[in-house]
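agent: user wants the structure for Small ribosomal subunit protein eS24 from Haloarcula marismortui. delegating to structure tool.
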Amino acid sequence: MDIDIIEEDENPMLHRTDVRFEVVHDEATPSRLSVRDSLAATLNKDAEEVVIHKLDTKFGMRKTVGYAKVYDNPEYARDVEQDHMLERNKIVADGEEEAEEA
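agent: tool returned. relaying tokens verbatim.
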């Protein structure tokens, strides 16, 4: 799976970078988590700082175009992102961490 960054837009007010990227894959469309891990490795970031919002694969193509938000640290991601996006990306919210520890 090869990831090419198409566009990066800085958003300093929300402490993040909006990234549009293209994934070329050999098999079926890769999972959101595998794309997140690969994108994080490409950008030299921690996987919890990357939130994949959209993956779009055209029928019959081996190319997926996606949109992600890359935060400066995981705390900003938890503060800004909606709960369902955190769940999709397997990022644990603050309240859930305390519940799991108990």
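agent: one observation worth passing along. The helical segments are 32-42, 74-80, 83-88, 94-101.
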